[in-house]
Automatic annotation (TrEMBL):
<keyword id="KW-0804">Transcription</keyword>
<dbReference type="Pfam" id="PF08281">
    <property type="entry name" value="Sigma70_r4_2"/>
</dbReference>
<dbReference type="GO" id="GO:0006352">
    <property type="term" value="P:DNA-templated transcription initiation"/>
</dbReference>
<dbReference type="InterPro" id="IPR013249">
    <property type="entry name" value="RNA_pol_sigma70_r4_t2"/>
</dbReference>
<comment type="similarity">
    <text>Belongs to the sigma-70 factor family. ECF subfamily.</text>
</comment>
<protein>
    <submittedName>
        <fullName>RNA polymerase subunit sigma-70</fullName>
    </submittedName>
</protein>
<dbReference type="GO" id="GO:0016987">
    <property type="term" value="F:sigma factor activity"/>
</dbReference>
<dbReference type="InterPro" id="IPR013324">
    <property type="entry name" value="RNA_pol_sigma_r3/r4-like"/>
</dbReference>
<feature type="domain" description="RNA polymerase sigma-70 region 2">
    <location>
        <begin position="14"/>
        <end position="80"/>
    </location>
</feature>
<keyword id="KW-0731">Sigma factor</keyword>
<dbReference type="InterPro" id="IPR007627">
    <property type="entry name" value="RNA_pol_sigma70_r2"/>
</dbReference>
<dbReference type="Pfam" id="PF04542">
    <property type="entry name" value="Sigma70_r2"/>
</dbReference>
<dbReference type="InterPro" id="IPR014284">
    <property type="entry name" value="RNA_pol_sigma-70_dom"/>
</dbReference>
<dbReference type="InterPro" id="IPR039425">
    <property type="entry name" value="RNA_pol_sigma-70-like"/>
</dbReference>
<feature type="domain" description="RNA polymerase sigma factor 70 region 4 type 2">
    <location>
        <begin position="108"/>
        <end position="158"/>
    </location>
</feature>
<dbReference type="InterPro" id="IPR013325">
    <property type="entry name" value="RNA_pol_sigma_r2"/>
</dbReference>
<dbReference type="GO" id="GO:0003677">
    <property type="term" value="F:DNA binding"/>
</dbReference>
């Protein structure tokens, strides 16, 4: 991989790493799992980056790779995937600390979201990130109407979980 491609990847990843942290938080329950999943998603993004053509926004592409990695790993109840070494170059990437001491309401919301299935979690995540239904549908590979219907059903489900 060329040096300019590496710099572009590191820059994009550093700029958008919070979206990966949020996905990790949705699919993990403790700090070690979070770090492991963050690392695996980063590796999968790195491996796939040479094929990123820019047809969509970097964030849309990264969401798709990150969500697919998280869903695949946790459906299989497996915490690792086959990876390739990239220790042959030095990468200067500063990982921001992620604050686990969130407000109580956010913890309750995440607790409720953890009770949803994988696709529902992904949909809620993108909805909370203010993604429009067109982008949600494109990322998840479903129709826009289906995304809207699913989101309305999920809202009802979350209301029942949070207010039994």
């Amino acid at each position: 991989m060329s040096e300019s491609l590496e710099k572009s990847f590191v820059s994009q990843l550093q700029q958008h790493q919070n979206l990966i942290h949020k996905i990790c938080r949705l699919y993990t329950s403790d700090a070690d799992e979070h770090k492991d999943l963050f690392q695996e998603i980063t590796i999968q993004l790195w491996k796939a980056f040479p094929q990123f053509r820019g047809d969509s926004k970097f964030t849309t592409w990264a969401y798709r790779v990150a969500l697919n990695t998280a869903i695949t790993l946790f459906r299989k109840k497996k915490r690792t995937v086959n990876t390739t070494e990239f220790n042959n170059t030095i990468h200067y990437f500063k990982q921001e600390d992620y604050n686990y001491e969130e407000e109580e309401q956010i913890k309750l919301l995440y607790s409720a979201v953890h009770q949803l299935n994988d696709i529902e979690k992904a949909l809620v995540f993108m909805y909370l990130e203010d993604k429009d239904y067109t982008e949600i549908a494109e990322t998840l590979g479903i129709s826009e109407v289906n995304a809207r219907v699913k989101m309305n059903r999920i809202k009802g489900k979350l209301k029942k979980i949070l207010n039994p």
